[in-house]
Known about the structure:
The protein has a single domain (9-191, 219-243), classed as Rossmann fold (3-Layer(aba) Sandwich), CATH 3.40.50.720. 46% of the residues lie in helices and 17% in strands. It is built from 8 helices and 9 strands. The strands form 2 sheets. Strands 3-2-1-4-5-6-9 form a 7-stranded parallel sheet, sandwiched between helices. The protein has a two-stranded parallel sheet with strand order 7-8. β5, α5 (155-175) and β6 form a beta-alpha-beta unit. The model has no long low-confidence stretch (mean pLDDT 98). The structure holds NADP nicotinamide-adenine-dinucleotide phosphate.
Amino acid sequence: MSNLFNGEVAIITGGGSGIGAATAILFAKNGAKVVVSDVDEKHGNAVAQQIKQNGGEAFFVKADVSRPADCERLVSETLHVYGGLDIAFNNAGIGGESNPVADMSIDGWDHIIAVNLSSVFYCMKYEIAAMLKKGKGAIVNMSSILGAVGFANSPGYVAAKHGVIGITKNAALEYSAKGIRINAVGPAFINTPLLTNAGIVGDVKKALVQLHPIGRFGEAEEIAELVVWLSSGKASFVTGSYYPADGAYLAQ
Ligand code: NAP
């Protein structure tokens, strides 16, 4: 099997856990140099270590993507260590406060918009500037099926994930002719710590599984395959769009 990458440099935010970790590992297996970034130092470092132990190239950068200065430093450290940036997967995110609109706290709203939406703007702002210097690049932003439809009691999450698709389209209009392809992915429910932290276990989980015609939740590795493909030269005409990977959730 030939590799999809030949030393291209890929940043993955939220790379210490779940979908981000699986994607970081798959990028490395396919020949990319990986910058694993996360707010969680222990888990992020562990993923970078695992990649190196398996013969890949990686290093860890601690960054809270809700802070613009952290996003700027993530890109500048990448340029310092690897000399350029080719690929970015803006994946970090949280479940956030669960309440209907009238009961949602202002702090809860501000927090989820900062972590799940403003972060994508902050990261792209600095990533695109670095990619323009090379005249090429590929960005994948993490949305959700909840970027396409609503989900009661998750107004902040749903608004943020719809917004991610919006800014993805805009950035693609602005930069596709300059060699940078920009897409968004939309997983349905995926077995990761995000779901267990949100209390999606037992009977709650069983009920949610029923919403997936495929009859199960997805696995992080199944999303990683889509992200890696979208980031590779195989997807050379693919830009400005949103790709669900959802076990037919949105087909209903
Ligand atoms: P996960 O296992 O919880 O991994 C997310 C990682 O991001 C964690 O290491 C988390 O650290 C980190 N993180 C949280 N806030 C951050 C911040 N401000 N800055 C940097 N890193 C931060 O979650 P996942 O399920 O893989 O989710 C990854 C992305 O996929 C999220 O954007 C999520 O909305 C999206 N998504 C998930 C599902 C699903 O069903 N799992 C479905 C659709 C979309 P901590 O553990 O310390 O918080």
